[in-house]
Amino acid sequence: YKAELKTLVDAESVSTDGKKTLLVANIGSPNDLEAVKANGAEGVGLFRTEFLYMENDDLPTEEQQFEVYKEVLENVNGPVVVRTLDIGGDKKLPALPLPEEMNPFLGVRAIRLCLQRKDIFRVQLRALLRASVYGELHIMFPMIATLGEFREAKGVLMEEKEKLIAEGVKVADKIEVGIMIEIPAAAVLADQFAKEVDFFSIGTNDLIQYTFAADRMSSTINYLYQPFNPAIIRLVKNVIEASHKEGKWTGMCGEMAGEAKAAPLLLGLGLDEFSMSATSILAQRKRIRGLSYEECKTLANKCADECATMEEVVDLVSESTGL
Ligand code: PEP
Ligand code: MG
Fold this sequence. Notes:
15 helices; binds phosphoenolpyruvate; binds magnesium ion
């Protein structure tokens, strides 16, 4: 089976009836680049940049960050989606003690922190903009709940871009700017967001946590981690449809994107890009290459429109596809 998967390293991620998708990797540092190549990733769908901030006692400098982003962009053939700092919640930052909060996952994390500490945010954005000429950079903001947050974050990005250009620094003309969809408010209002962003990437790890109001770290209520609950399928469907109506694209970078039973559902809903740990890519590519998009579309819509429970969705997918 492993040898068979290896033959798919250079294969397209395409359904039996010709629907093309992109299978890309989640990475946490340049150490993961080797696995990206070895597993035939068509790009990077999520570069989590937290390691830069968590490894040291000091905040990373613009220069340190620039070198890392440049290395990643130079070594990936295809788009690279870099997510700006997503610290807070479970992830602590040694160089910046956060306020003690009753519910850290509902508190100052990710873009909320960056908008409060624009000094830190600007350093990362400058490093990214400077690195943009070395590859196909996309910039993604995490934990966006409102359009106001997106506009403010993008405004800061544009300010830094203009400053760099005024300083005579080269910046790529075309950098796509998108958001993670991981807060239900943004998933519900995706049609409005789609007018202003270049792309969405659905972060199911948090989207499920916030939709079911169930801490993703808790083992006592982990039955509420339900990627196949129709509530989640409907949110995902809404986001993909909203993006396509505006000519934009949607990816998924949460764990769900690599799950076997999710392949037919997400293909059927029209997901454009699946991002997962590199080691899951070849198996997911093999599944997609064995599926008919038209059949999956019927299946996915049935799951979204007619199923009441996660179990019904899982059974329907199993019966229809054998997965
Ligand atoms: C997610 O929430 O699904 C996601 C990809 O981000 P993280 O797991 O880093 O919160
Ligand atoms: Mg998340």
